[in-house]
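TICKET: design request
STATUS: open
ATTACHED STRUCTURE:
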């Protein structure tokens, strides 16, 4: 699986364009805003966007999902349904940050632990990793050893857990029980900041010591 990271919004959120290198079928993961920038980046890669994937329902990850889905004529898939209240609250989130109103969103398909998302010949495992939000999920390319981790784990940090229905205990358990066992060699694209490997974070991340 190939990828291209597109930083968007004032929060420098990593919107990820991922695609099957053989079929060129692509997905946009967490298109949080700056729709025109995302469209331009997609056009530069000569890929065919077939779905929008969401790790969770925060505005900086989902704010442009509906616009992207309409533009490419594709479904929105994810997150897990416990994040429904976040997606329904997108108008309130946008108002809180003084941004243009973002309408509420209902995905075409909710995802659960153990589900799979197909992208050309690439099979993505879905892991439910609550803590940052209750319905947060991650996408894992087991063959390519690449994880799209949203706001669960960062290079040197972990996601905030002080939002409604957040839990630091659940967050750390998600990392220890579901992510770290995937293997030290796994590279991950976080929701913000530079990439890292699970092995590097297992050894050096202060929140995991």
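STATUS: resolved
RESOLUTION: sequence designed for all positions
ATTACHED SEQUENCE:
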């Amino acid at each position: 699986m190939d990828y291209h990271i597109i930083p968007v919004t004032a929060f420098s959120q990593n919107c990820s364009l991922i695609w099957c290198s053989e079929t060129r079928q692509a997905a946009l993961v967490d298109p949080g805003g700056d729709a025109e920038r995302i469209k331009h980046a997609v056009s530069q890669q000569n890929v065919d966007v077939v779905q929008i994937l969401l790790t969770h329902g925060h505005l900086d990850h989902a704010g442009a999902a509906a616009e992207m889905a309409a533009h490419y004529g594709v479904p929105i898939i994810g997150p897990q349904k416990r994040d429904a209240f976040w997606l329904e609250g997108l108008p309130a989130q946008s108002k809180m940050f003084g941004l243009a109103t973002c309408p509420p969103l209902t995905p075409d398909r909710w995802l659960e632990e153990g589900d799979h998302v197909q992208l050309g010949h690439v099979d993505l495992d879905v892991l439910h990793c609550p803590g940052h939000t209750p319905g947060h999920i991650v996408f894992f390319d087991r063959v390519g050893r690449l994880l799209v981790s949203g706001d669960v784990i960062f290079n040197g940090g972990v996601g905030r857990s002080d939002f409604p229905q957040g839990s630091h205990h659940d967050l750390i358990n998600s990392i220890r029980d579901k992510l770290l066992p995937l293997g030290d060699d796994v590279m991950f694209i976080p929701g913000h900041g530079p990439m890292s490997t699970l092995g590097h974070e297992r050894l050096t991340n202060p929140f995991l010591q």
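CLOSING REMARK: The radius of gyration is 16 Å. The chain has seven helices and 13 strands.
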